[in-house]
Amino acid sequence: MAGSLTSLARVMAGVALVLFVVFVVNQTAQVVTLADRLSPLLGTVVLWTLVAAYAGTGLYIGFQYVRLPKPLRPPASKDSPEYTRYLEALKARLRRNPYVHGIPLETEADLQRALEELGKRADEVTRSTALQVFLMTAVSQNGSLDAIAVLAAQSRMIWQIARIYNQRPTARELAALYANVAMASLLSRQLEEMDASEMLQPLLSAVMPSTLSAVPGMQTASIIFTQAVLSGSANAYGTLRVGVIAKRYCGSLTMPEPNALRKAAFAEAILMTPSVVQKGAETVFDLLKRAAAKTLVDSTKTAATAVVDTVGRGVEQIKQGAQQVASAGAEKVRGIKLRWPFGRGGESAGGEDEPGS
Asked: Rounded CA gap, 175 and 249, in Å?
């Protein structure tokens, strides 16, 4: 079983590496071509700058990986003669771990307490990564890009958990972990084909006001919200499961049995899922509510601006019309004055005295 998982992991890693290299080369070629159109010298500078950046990144990652101590191989059981030596080596390593500084490490119970403390930190990293994956996939809902993003997030999470325990995972552990990543991806695809309303109705009732769908025009928002929560939940659960397996591999006093490990990871991930999904669903709902409110406000502002502009133009036209009427009336009055036919006291008709003067 371990050999097949290792072979599968090697094949998956090789395919992923080839696809990643093709993607990087393609993007680099586009950037260099764009820079070369501006200036051939700029294209050359951009090309070698990117090559140096890629080389530096690869060397840094390799250095950080090699820098971590080799993993301690726990014995198969506590009855093994290697168990005592393993405990002593584990004590020496934990004494250098800053996360358990101050915790006594004399007995096996002390080691269990120290590993539980590290496990709590690993759970924090796992929940945080699962929430990030939930929000990322719930908002994006782009299958291919989501798979790459989830794989990157889970790989980073495994690395962080390994650093918490101050050791690097072995090839066998990585094979098991990435096999679970693949299993989580398959689970995500299966969940996407299920009825979201049946699976998430209890959760949706807790995080979404019941009056939302009753508001005219909000039925579509309810559907979008449900689809987002479904996609995010599947990927968050897969991430939690991978994180739990990584934690149990790194923090066990004896070598975990694969079947028992999978069952324990399933149970623990299920218990951690509701809090992550509820927090993520509330965030997605707030984003959806904010976007809807902004759209409504923008539409209202646009309509109000149009009304104000229309009223303003109307008022301006009325003012101009009133001025024209007033000007015409003044000219009329002047005409009447000039043609006034009556004089006063025998004055000639050409006199310019105003009437009544």
From this structure: 12
> Is-contact 177 242, C-beta < 8 A?
yes
pLDDT at 292 over 90: no
Spans of all domains in the chain: 1-67, 68-301
Rounded CA-CA distance 50/300 in Å is 48
Is it the case that residue 353 has pLDDT exceeding 60?
no
Handedness of CA 145, 148, 151, 153 (dihedral sign): negative
Which residues make Cβ contacts (< 8 Å) with residue 74, sequence separation at least 6?
A: 86, 252, 253, 254, 255
Question: How far does Cα 135 stand from its chain's mean position?
Answer: 4
Q: Report the C-alpha gap between 13 and 17 in whole angstroms.
A: 6
Q: Would you give the distance in Å from CA 341 to the centre of its chain?
A: 90
Query: Does position 102 have pLDDT exceeding 60, yes or no?
Result: yes
HSE-CB of 291 using CA atoms within 13 angstroms: 11
The answer to whether the pTM exceeds 0.70 is no
CA nearest to 234, candidates 202, 264, 284, 277: 277
Gyration radius from the chain CA atoms: 37
d(CA 174, CA 10): 10
